[in-house]
Amino acid sequence: MGMTAGSRWAVRIGVGLLVLIGLLILLLAAFPWGMFKGRIEDRLSDRIGKRVTIGSMVREDSLSFHPVVRLTDIKVPQPDWAPGNADLARVGEARVGFSALALLTGGPVLERLDLAHARLSFYRAADGRESWSGERSHASDDKGQRPALRSLTVSDSRIAYRDDKRGRSVDAALMVDARGLRLSGTGDVRGHPVRVTASGAPIVGRKTGARWPFKAEIAGEAVGMTIDGTMDGPLDIGHLRGRVTGHAIDLRVLDAIIEAGLPGTQPVRLAAQVVRDRPDWTIENLKGTIGRSDIAGHATIRKRDGRTRIDGAIASARFDFDDLSSNEGKRKAAAKRAKLGERLIPDTAIDLSRMARTDGRLEVRADRLLWPGSSPFRSLRGTLRLERSRLVVEPLRLGLTRGILTGRLAVDQRQGGPRLDLALNLRSARLLDFFPEARIDGGLTGRVALNGPGRTIRQAVGRSSGTIALVGRDGSIPARTAALMGQDVGKGLTVDKDKMAVLRCVVARFDVSNGVARANPVLIDTSRAQTRIAGTIRLTDEVMALEASGQPKQGSLLRLNGTVPIGGTIKQPDIRVPTEARSTKGILKMIGKAIAGDKVPRARDADCEGLAKTAMR
């Protein structure tokens, strides 16, 4: 049966289409890629804002879907804002092999690259501009394509890099041939000299899908870092895994290499297993030391929509908070203490502005806290959550010699400057652990609820409002101290120094408004006397303006009348003894009153239970 006219036309159209497709494929295989020289120059020139030139560009083969193009005398100038006279790139000769079909399908394009007599000079300015990237890209969290590079050779070439933002530089010779990749040169990290080396396995003849082993090292006395691992493919820095080690005189110096925004510290040594799957990092088996502290942990770092999220855990068997300060930081802190005096409230920074685009969750644990002197704080546990400029540490648990301090610390910077919110509870503690030299003991509980703005804890507490309450119960106190607190000078000087009195309670509540803490009340009740304290403490500088008045519960030998002013600071109190206790006339007057049998009202036992409930409400 013969074909109908319609069928014959369909066959002719089909054959025509096949012929046309064949001709297009043949044209693609034989395309004269050299004719794009001008367009490539124009596109590169538009990107960096200065004229890029290529001496010549010709296709070496005649018919292939994997053409090889030879370019000579390539010159890429630096942007106008970059310093120096060196071009961004000067390449004597480049042979580029690529997949013509990938240009149509959108797959990996570059397959082969041979460079000779190349000089590359990269520069990053202090403001973050990069000479090699034109307008800065905000698509850093794009997974991108894995390179399909099958062959790379480089001869007689050098790479120079200077980074004024991080304070680092390198100038190195690069060679890639049948033996593999080799890089060697010198540089500096924040002014500290280093030697930079790298090596990689041969690229030519590599099996498809095989991982590419490499090593890199930055070696110096002050700072150094190594990585020994593999990439998914040659030079595929977006997909790698390996073991990393690092050391530095200061974590901030090491951070010039890793760019994680880390602070200055005491000398550091770290090691970890890392995996990068662009744009994410996974850090496992992190171990190391900072000063005399040890750390271990893990973390994942993810970048999405211009934000960075860090989730992980950090643990320490021994941890010293002083190790989180560099020597320079310690010198500044010492100078500040010399100028302002000792302070109880820490000057720890809580400004989150540098972490405006960082979120995450971090579990923190320190089994043993190390201090330069005695301290009741022994261990630390906490969960840190940071979400869009709001940091919450909850639950927060500080283990004491006896007892625990638990609660919540929050820093909210969503509405401008940071605002601190503290809610802490103390329970099952002992007075003796906080005041060992005073030999005063008893069960201790307390609570702190403060809220205020400031860029450090000290500044925020100095502007805060809220309450501070402490209650000590059922303990002991040196009899001499108890007598003096009842303003009985005679017994305070004559009672056996080893004799103890009963401490019924210490009740201290301060109502805080705009950084001024007002006693409401502060009372010390013992078996020998009762003391009430009134006045204020200015939390900005911890200056006290208090007055103590004591009443004995027993007969007095030499009774001091009136009140006793208490000035100075919390860490360095100044108890101002009244004039009558310092002069012969005053002492004789007290003796006269004692001989005459001057009747002093006796204090009654305070309602410790009721006062404690009121203070802790």
Automatic annotation (TrEMBL):
Q: Where are the transmembrane segments?
A: 12-36
Alphabetical list of PANTHER family matching this protein: DUF748 DOMAIN-CONTAINING PROTEIN, PROTEIN ASMA
Q: Which Pfam families match?
A: AsmA
GO biological process, any: regulation of protein targeting to membrane
Protein's name in the database: AsmA family protein
Looking up InterPro entries in the UniProt record yields:
AsmA (IPR007844), AsmA-related (IPR052894)
Q: Which UniProt keywords apply?
A: Membrane, Transmembrane, Transmembrane helix
Q: According to its record, what are the GO cellular component terms?
A: plasma membrane
- Residue span, AsmA domain: 3-142, 284-521
